């Protein structure tokens, strides 16, 4: 789990908008799509490593992955979420 106080301070480095912790059901869907090779990052690179949690943008089109307790806030490594996962 990520500290809610930290989440309230973080902003999307691309849009400047707020972020929210992804629901467990969304993380499950994302990891299933990753295992099928369906998800890509903003550089169009296939995502191969499952996530533990994630921070979703207010528009729901990007998720910043959290792996081993570390949030990756690099814009180009944000996972692009298809409309069916939003």
Automatic annotation (TrEMBL):
Name used for this protein in its record: Trm112p-like protein
Organism expressing this protein natively: Novipirellula galeiformis
